[in-house]
């Protein structure tokens, strides 16, 4: 009976995932790099800017915040669905650490003719952006890091999703129990991410939240969760070697990542960095002040130097 119930739940979850994909079809283009199919959205012309979203998200995050359209006025903007997220694939056989993702993106840059881009990373993707700058220094001329995680800590959320990332058990969970549980938890997750500010009105109409609870993306979400702290531990010893300009943007009221421990520390480690605090903002700083983020990108694109702090530390 239990097996039949789980089988029925798996069938329902598959049908729901297909329905959600019909409701939110891909809006961008696809390219295949080393056998991995990547989905990306491109607009505008001018100095290149690459946008990398955080965990449990898609490139639509930058559309919903308004940052993509704001930057496209004066830049060639490329937003990627990171591997396994949105409509990008995440083949098995790879741990898909931030370094692995950076390697793949660097090769995608070559295919798309992206040179010396300003790379914007949010949350987990700040580690991907840092790995890209460290391992492929010719790919980026500057980084804008939003609400990032840079130094290892004990994270309860990583422990909670670890079973979903494991073989066999994870496959069972993400096709049966995890999708409905994730959907039920979505309002609380969004509240925590935007707090202390409210979740924007109309977000459900501009951001396809249903896509991040599909079985395939749940595996990617869980893998990113369990690889985050070990990656930060590896990369932290290399930060001081970065010479390119880095702008760090954070909110004091971030309830997902303690920014006083993360962003402040990174700013003191990086030799060529600037730190901006966004008043009253939580984890979603690019929603709280997209113009500030865009201004940081503009200055890095033109001057190749950190923007002067608009808000005192």
From TrEMBL:
* GO MF annotation terms: hydrolase activity
**Record-annotated AB hydrolase-1 domain positions:** 47-288
> Which keywords are on file for this protein?
Hydrolase
Q: Where are the bilayer-spanning segments?
A: none
Pfam families in the record, alphabetically? Abhydrolase_1
Q: Say which domain of life the source belongs to.
A: Bacteria
Listed name of the protein:
Alpha/beta hydrolase
**The species this protein was found in:** Azospirillum thiophilum
Lineage of this protein's species?
A: Bacteria, Pseudomonadati, Pseudomonadota, Alphaproteobacteria, Rhodospirillales
């Amino acid at each position: 009976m239990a097996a039949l119930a789980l089988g029925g739940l798996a069938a329902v979850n598959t049908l729901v995932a297909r329905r959600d994909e019909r409701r939110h079809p891909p809006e961008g283009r696809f390219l295949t790099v080393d056998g991995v199919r990547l989905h990306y959205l491109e607009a505008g012309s001018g100095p290149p800017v690459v946008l990398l979203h955080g965990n449990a998200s898609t490139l639509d995050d930058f559309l919903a915040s308004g940052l993509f359209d704001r930057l496209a006025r004066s830049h060639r903007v490329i937003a990627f669905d990171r591997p396994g997220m949105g409509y990008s694939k995440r083949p098995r056989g790879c741990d898909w650490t931030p370094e692995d993702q950076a390697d793949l993106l660097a090769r995608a840059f070559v295919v798309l003719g992206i040179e010396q881009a300003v790379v914007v990373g949010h949350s987990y993707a700040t580690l991907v952006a840092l790995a890209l700058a460290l391992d492929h220094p010719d790919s980026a001329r500057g980084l804008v890091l939003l609400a990032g995680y840079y130094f290892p800590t004990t994270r309860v959320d990583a422990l909670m999703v670890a079973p979903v990332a494991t073989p066999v058990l994870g496959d069972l969970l993400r096709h049966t129990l995890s999708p409905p549980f994730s959907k039920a938890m979505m309002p609380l997750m969004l509240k925590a991410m935007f707090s202390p500010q409210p979740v924007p009105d109309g977000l459900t109409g501009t951001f396809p939240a249903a896509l991040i609870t599909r079985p395939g993306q749940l595996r990617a979400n869980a893998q990113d969760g369990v690889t985050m702290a070990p990656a930060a531990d590896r990369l932290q010893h290399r930060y001081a070697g970065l010479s390119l300009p880095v702008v760090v943007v954070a909110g004091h009221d971030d309830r997902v990542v303690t920014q006083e421990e993360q962003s402040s520390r990174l700013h003191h480690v990086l030799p060529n960095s600037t730190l901006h605090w966004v008043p009253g903002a939580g984890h979603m700083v690019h929603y709280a002040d997209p113009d500030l983020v865009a201004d940081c990108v503009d200055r890095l694109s033109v001057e190749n130097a950190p923007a002067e702090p608009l808000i005192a530390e």
